[in-house]
TrEMBL record, chains A, B:
Organism: Stachybotrys elegans
Ranges of residues in domain Copper amine oxidase catalytic: 255-671
Enzyme Commission numbers on file: 1.4.3.-
Enzyme category, top tier: oxidoreductase
Record-stated family: Belongs to the copper/topaquinone oxidase family.
Cofactor binding note: Contains 1 topaquinone per subunit.
Keywords from the named record: Copper, Metal-binding, Oxidoreductase, TPQ
Active site: D329 (proton acceptor), Y413 (proton acceptor)
Protein name: Amine oxidase
Domain Copper amine oxidase N2-terminal, first and last residues per copy: 9-104
The protein's required cofactors: Cu cation
GO BP terms in the entry: amine metabolic process
C-alpha cells in the first residue's frame, strides 16, 4: 500500500525537525525584542483540492517520486507579548522554503485556548493578591488545610461588562496532614471565585459565592462578623486507594486478555494504520487529539476526516457568578494538550500499541507527549449468528473491534474518547464521561434545586456536556457525497394502497443546502451519507452509510442567554454545512470568553453553500454561499443532574454514535469472518466458587428443538423441475 | 446466605421429580380416553404476598426449618385433544398434595403458543395436500431443488374472516445438490403461503403472493399459462463456512480471555447466583427463558422480578396476505422453548457457566434443555478514572460486568438477550438482533417500496421488532416503590430567578395511577423508581434508581389496524401498571392469532389500579381498580428497513436499557474496586505486524501536563485556621 518514498505522506504528523524549522522561521520574522509565546505547532493539513488527487493516486497504487504533492506546511499559533497587550498570531509556514505563507492577527477579543503552563500563573497571582487575601480572611480553615486553586476559563462575559481577557479560579482546600499530594481537594470548596486579568496577571476581583439552599435566593450571603468556619462537617472525598477508609474488594479475580499470536493490526511510523480491511491515518492535533484521515475499507473511501470538534459544559446554577461556569473543552483548553499519558494494563487491556505525539513548549521547542493514544483490538460479543433449527447447527462469529482511544483530563473531569472499527464495515464514535463532578459549598442541612448534595457541605451543580463530532464524508468517492434524511412514516388504512394498515412509507429528502436537523425517533429519522452517482448493484440504491445518533437533550439554557449564543451548535442534533478548508470548529475557532459563536456551524448554515448543481431556489437566494460538498456535524450530550453515586469519582456515562454501511456492500461484509471456536474458554461448574474446569468438549446437547430435517422433493410437492431431465 | 434446608427455595425451578408429579396429577384427573398434549410444566411462582415475608426473613438471616413458606406449585398448561376441538387448559398443581388447585379452560379463540413439535406437522400437511400440490404446479424449480417450509403463526385475522385456529407457512426451496443440510433455503422463496387448519391438520387454502415491484399493485400476479421458472437468477445465500464461495479471513488473530484464578461468581444448584455484591435467582420459563428474581445488592432489594415480556414483529408490506406476517415471539412461540444450546468459546468467551433447564415433551415427561443460559464475566473498558493534573497520578478501574445471556432462534431469526450487572450498582438489559431477515420473491430487475432487494430475486420486507421488558421494582423494600417522571425544563431569563438564562428546572411528577409515558429526549425525561419513604442520608432525596430507555420509534402500523389492536403496548415507550400476581404479559397471555390485546398492558391501565393511599381524584373515578404497587414496562425497538449488508445473515443490531442507582447509595459504589494494573497486557510496537513485545514497565512518561503541584498555606492565603493553635 505505502510507496517506498523518502518524502513524508502529506498527512504525516510534523517531525521534530519540522517543528524546529517552523519555530525558527517564526523567530526570524520577529526581532530579538519581541517576546513570543508559542501555543501550537502542528501539521497544516493540505487543502482538499490538493490532497484528493494525491489520495486517488495512492489508492490506485500509482504514486511515484514525481507525483505532485501538496506543499508541506506547519501551522504555528503564538502570541506576541508586550506589557500592555498580547497579540495572537496564526501563521502557516512552508517547511521547504522556511517561509511564512500566511499570517493573521486574531481580532481584539478573540482569545486562544489556555496552555497548561498558564494555569500555574493563576495560583501565583492569587498568592500575590491582597484582594484574594482579604477575601480569604473571611474564612477559618481547619488546621493543616492548604489552599489550592483550579483555574477555569472565565465563561461568557455578561452583556453589561466589557472585560479584557480574564481567567477565573475555583478555590479549594486540601488536608495536608495526610501528607499525600493526591488527597482530594474537591471535597473542600471555598466559596469565592478570584478573577485575574490575564495580561497584567493581577487579581482584579474576588467574587463571593452563595452557599445557601433552595430558598435562599441568588445573592451571596452577607459577610459575617468573624471568619466563617469552613468544613465543619465535610467528609474526606478520597479516591486514591491508600487514602480510602473502606477496604478494597478482594474478590474480583483477574480477567486476562491475551493475543498469543500477536495483534491483527499494523501501525506504520507515519500514522498509517491497517486493520483487517480498514486503512486510515491518525494525526494528533493539540485541540482535537486523534483525528482520523482518509478512512477506507477495501480501498474504498468512507470518511475523508473524522474528528471531535467541541464540547461545551454549561452549568445550570443561576446564582452569579456561577453562570460563568461554561467551558468549551476543545476551544478553551484543547483535548490534545490535555491528553493523558496512557498506561498498559490500566487504560487498555490486551495487546496495545501506544502512539506518542509532539507538542511545543511555550518557547516553541518540541516536547514529547508520550502514549497519548492507544490502539487495540477487543471482543464485543456476538457479531452474527444463525442456528438451523432443523439440524441444530449454529454458526456464530465474534464481534471484534479495533479501538483508537484517548483520554483527556480537564482539571476535575475526564473524558474517554474512542473511535471503534468493526468487522461489518461499521464505525462507532464513543465518549465516556468520568472524573470528579464540579462542586461548590452548600450550608449544612440545606438542599438546592440547582444541584444535588453529594456529600455533607458539597453541592454538585446540574450541568450539561454537549459533544460535537465532525464527519467529512467520502462515500466511495472524495467528491460525490450527498446527504439524505430518511424517515419511516405511518400511513392510514386505504383500500387501494394500505388495506390493512401495516404499510409504512420510507420517505427520503435530499439535503441540498446547509441546515440543521433535529433527531426524531418517533419517525425513525436517520441521515444517510450516500454517493450521489454510484448505485448498489444488488438493490439499485445509492451506495451509502447510515448515521445513527443517540437522541439526547440539547442545550437547555434560554435561547437568549449568552450560553446559547456562544453554543448555537448545541441547540440541534445534526447540522449539515458546506465544506471549506480548515473549518473544523463547530462553535468557532475562538470560544474562550466568547460572547457568541463566531464562524461556527450556525454561521456556516447562514452563508448558504449548496450541494446541487445550482443554488436551490427559495428564501436563501440572497445568501453568498458557493457550491460545496456536505459536512455532517453530530451533536449529542448528557444532561447531568448529579447522583450521590457520582461522588467522589463518577462511574462512566457512555454515549455512542454509529456509521453503518447501508447498501455500501453487496452482502454482509462480515460473512467471511471465521466462526472459530475459542480454545481458551473454560467451563465454570455449578456450586463452585469460580473454580474453572479444564476446557472440554461439551456433551452433544440434547436438543429440545431438533427438527425433522425433512425436505420435500420438488416434484412430490407438485412442482415441475427446470433445467433438468423432467422439464 | 442460603440456609441449610432440605426444602427447595420457593423460587427454585421444578425438579424432574416435581415435573413428573405434576404430570401424574393431571393424568389422574383425566380418564384414559382423554388424549392430552402437554405444553408447559414449570414453577408456579408464589403469590407476592406469600413470598415477600419469606424473602424478608431470608435476607435478615432468620430462615429456619419452620419458617412458613408458600406452597410448592407447578403450572401445567396442556390441551385436551378431541377430533373436532382442542381445549387448552391451564392448571396449578399443589406438589405436596398432588392436587389440582385451580384449572380453567382458555376462551374459544384464545390459542396457546406453538410447540416446536407442531412445526413439523405443518410440513406433513403440505405434502399430503392436493391444494398445495396444485399451487406448486404453477412453478418450475431447477433440478435438485427441494421444497422446505417454515411454519409461522397466522398473524391477526382480517376483520372479515372468522377462522378457527390456523397456521401459515413460508415456502422455500433448497439446492439439494449441495448435499449439505445447512445449505440456506432462504435464498429461494416460492411465492405461495399455505394455510393449515390446526385441528384438522388440513391445508385449507394456498395464498398466492405478489412478486412485482414498486408500481405493480397489491394483487398477486395472474396465473401463467405454463409453470413459472423460479430462481433463474437467484444466487446462493450460504453462510456455513464450507459452502461459502469467498475465502474466510485468515488474518484475525485470536483474542483469548482467561481467568487464571477462576471466575468471581458462584452458582448454587437452586438457581441462586452471587457475584460481587449482587445476589439474585434465575428461573428459566418456557416463554421468557431466563427470569431474574429477587435482585439485591448488599442485601438491599432492587428488583423483585425482571423479565422480557414480549416482542412483536409486524411487517410493513401491505400486499395481502403479507399483512399476516406479525409474530409475537414470546406469546406465539416462546423464547425459552426456542432457546439455543450454547457453546463454549462461540457464544461466550472466558470462564463460562452454562445453566440447563427442563422442558416437558408433549407427553409431559421431562426433557433436558442443555446449556440454555450462559453466565460469565467480561471487561467493558474503563469504569472510572481521575488523573491529578498536578501530580500526573492516575487512578483507573475497569468496568467488569457479569452477564446472563440466552439466545433464541425463531425459524430464520435470532435474538441474543442479556442481563448485565456492573460494579457500580447498574443493570443493563440488552438485545442483539441477528439471523436471517425474512424474505419473499421479487421479479427480476424490480425494486419495491415495501422493502429492499438484498439479492437477485429476493425482497427483504420492511418490518419492526418491538421488545417489552417487565420490571417489577423493589427499591430497598418489597412494598414501597414509587415511580416518578423527571424532566429537565428550560426556563426563560428572569431577573429574580434566572438572570442569565442558564438555569433549568428539574421537575418531578409522581405516577399515582397506571398510565403510559412516551420518551421525550428533548426534556431529558427519565423515570425514577424510588422508595417512597426512605431518604438518602446524604442528599435527602428518596433512594432510587433511574430507568434509562433508548428512545426508538414505536409501532408504525395505523392505529386502526389489527396490528396495532393486537399490540397496543408497542405504541408507547413506557407503561406503569398496578401489580397483580401472574400478570407477566404485556400483550396479553394469548397473542397467537389474536385480534386484539386482551388483558395486556392497555387493559391494565384502563382498570385504574392506584399507587397512593387513596384512589386519586379525576376522570378515572369510575374505574374498578384497587390499591397496588407499580410495575414498569419498557418498550423499545428497531424499525428495520433491511440493508443489503443484512444478507444472508445480518450483523447484530444492539439495543440497551439501563437501571442505574440514583441516590440509592451514599457514594460511588465502585469506589472500592481495585485499580490493579493487568499484568497480562503487552505492548505492540510500531511497524510490526502484530508482533507483541513482552510486558515491560513503560518508561515514566514525559508529561507535557505536569503541574506545579503548588498548594498555598491557608494563612499565607489570608485565611485563619480553626481547630488549631492559631485560632
Amino acid at each position: 500500500m505505502t510507496v517506498s518514498n523518502t518524502l513524508p505522506h502529506p498527512l504525516a504528523p510534523l517531525s521534530e525537525a519540522e517543528i524546529l524549522r517552523a519555530r525558527d522561521t517564526i523567530l526570524k520574522q520577529h526581532g530579538a525584542s519581541d517576546s513570543l509565546y508559542f501555543r501550537c505547532i502542528y501539521l497544516n493539513e493540505p487543502a482538499k483540492a490538493e490532497l484528493v488527487p494525491f489520495l486517488e493516486l495512492e489508492h490506485a497504487g500509482k504514486l511515484t517520486e514525481s507525483t505532485p504533492r501538496p506543499p508541506r506546511q506547519a501551522r504555528v499559533e503564538y502570541d506576541v507579548l508586550t506589557p500592555s497587550k498580547h497579540h495572537h498570531i496564526r501563521t502557516v509556514v512552508d517547511l521547504k522554503a522556511s517561509q511564512v505563507v500566511s499570517s493573521d492577527t486574531a481580532a481584539q477579543k478573540a482569545y486562544p485556548s489556555y496552555s497548561p503552563e498558564e494555569f500555574n500563573d493563576f495560583q501565583d497571582a492569587c498568592v500575590a493578591s491582597e484582594l484574594f487575601q482579604k477575601a480569604m480572611s473571611e474564612f477559618a480553615l481547619p488546621e493543616n488545610f492548604k489552599v489550592i486553586i483550579d483555574p477555569w476559563p472565565y465563561g461568557g462575559p455578561d452583556d453589561a461588562e466589557d472585560p479584557d481577557r480574564y481567567m477565573q479560579g475555583l478555590v479549594f482546600a486540601v488536608d495536608s496532614s495526610k501528607k499525600n499530594p493526591d488527597s482530594n481537594h474537591y471535597g473542600y470548596p471555598i466559596p469565592i471565585i478570584p478573577v485575574m486579568d490575564w495580561v497584567s496577571k493581577k487579581i482584579v476581583r474576588v467574587d463571593r459565592l452563595a452557599t445557601g439552599g433552595a430558598e435562599d435566593g441568588l445573592e451571596p450571603e452577607a459577610k459575617a462578623a468573624s471568619p466563617k468556619k469552613l468544613f465543619q462537617n465535610n467528609a474526606p472525598a478520597e479516591y486514591v486507594p491508600e487514602l480510602l477508609d473502606i477496604p478494597l474488594r478482594n474478590d474480583l479475580k483477574p480477567i486476562n486478555i491475551t493475543q498469543p499470536e500477536g495483534a491483527s493490526f499494523t501501525v506504520h511510523p507515519d500514522g498509517l494504520i491497517e486493520w483487517q480491511k480498514w486503512r486510515f491515518r491518525i494525526v494528533f492535533t493539540p485541540r482535537e487529539a486523534a483525528v482520523l484521515h482518509d478512512v477506507t475499507y477495501e480501498n474504498r473511501p468512507i470518511v475523508y476526516r473524522l474528528s471531535y470538534s467541541e464540547l461545551t459544559v454549561p452549568y445550570g446554577d443561576p446564582r452569579p457568578p456561577f453562570h460563568r461556569k461554561q467551558a468549551f473543552d476543545f476551544g478553551d483548553g484543547g483535548i490534545g494538550r490535555a491528553a493523558n499519558n496512557l498506561e498498559l494494563g490500566c487504560d487498555c487491556l490486551g495487546a496495545i500499541h501506544y502512539m506518542d505525539s509532539i507538542l511545543p513548549s511555550p518557547d516553541g521547542t518540541p516536547t514529547a507527549a508520550k502514549s497519548v493514544v492507544c490502539l487495540h483490538e477487543q471482543d464485543n460479543g456476538i457479531l452474527w449468528k444463525h442456528t438451523n433449527f432443523r439440524t441444530n447447527r449454529a454458526v456464530v462469529t465474534r464481534n471484534r473491534e479495533f479501538v483508537v482511544q484517548f483520554i483527556a483530563t480537564l482539571a476535575n473531569y475526564e473524558y474517554i474518547f474512542a473511535y471503534k472499527f468493526d468487522l461489518a464495515g461499521g464505525i462507532t464514535v464513543e465518549t465516556r464521561a468520568t472524573g470528579i463532578v464540579s462542586v461548590v459549598s452548600i450550608d449544612e442541612g440545606k438542599t438546592s434545586k440547582y444541584g444535588n448534595v453529594v456529600a455533607p457541605g458539597i453541592l454538585a451543580q446540574n450541568h450539561q456536556h454537549i459533544f460535537a463530532v465532525r464527519i467529512d464524508p467520502a462515500i466511495d468517492s472524495y467528491t460525490d457525497t450527498q446527504v439524505v434524511v430518511e424517515e419511516s412514516i405511518s400511513k392510514k388504512i386505504d383500500p387501494k394502497t394500505n388495506p390493512y394498515g401495516n404499510y409504512y412509507e420510507v420517505q427520503r429528502q435530499q439535503v441540498d443546502k446547509p441546515r440543521w436537523i433535529d433527531a426524531e425517533p418517533r419517525l425513525n429519522r436517520v441521515l444517510k451519507l450516500e454517493n450521489s452517482t454510484k448505485k448498489n448493484s444488488i438493490s439499485g440504491k445509492n451506495v451509502g452509510y447510515k448515521f445513527i445518533l443517540p437522541s439526547t437533550q440539547m442545550l437547555v439554557a434560554d435561547d437568549d442567554s449568552v450560553h446559547a449564543r456562544r453554543a448555537r451548535y448545541a441547540q440541534h442534533n445534526m447540522w449539515v454545512t458546506g465544506y471549506r478548508d480548515g473549518e473544523f470548529w463547530v462553535a468557532g475557532e475562538f470560544t474562550n470568553q466568547s460572547r457568541k459563536e463566531t464562524d461556527g456551524v450556525d454561521d456556516m448554515v447562514r452563508r448558504g453553500d449548496w450541494f446541487t448543481d445550482e443554488a436551490p431556489n427559495g428564501q436563501d437566494q440572497e445568501s453568498k454561499g458557493k457550491k460545496s460538498t456536505p459536512v455532517l456535524w453530530g451533536i449529542f450530550g448528557l444532561t447531568h443532574n448529579p447522583r450521590v453515586e457520582d461522588w467522589p469519582v463518577m462511574p462512566v456515562e457512555i454515549h455512542q454514535m454509529h456509521l453503518r454501511p447501508a447498501d455500501f456492500f453487496t452482502f454482509n461484509p462480515a460473512l467471511d469472518v471465521p466462526s472459530t471456536k475459542n480454545a481458551a474458554s473454560v467451563l465454570v461448574p455449578c456450586c463452585s466458587n469460580g473454580e474453572a474446569s479444564k476446557a472440554t468438549e461439551q456433551d452433544k446437547p440434547l436438543s429440545h428443538l431438533q427438527g425433522s430435517g425433512k425436505e420435500i422433493d420438488a416434484q412430490a410437492a407438485g412442482a415441475s423441475v427446470t433445467n433438468g431431465k423432467t422439464e
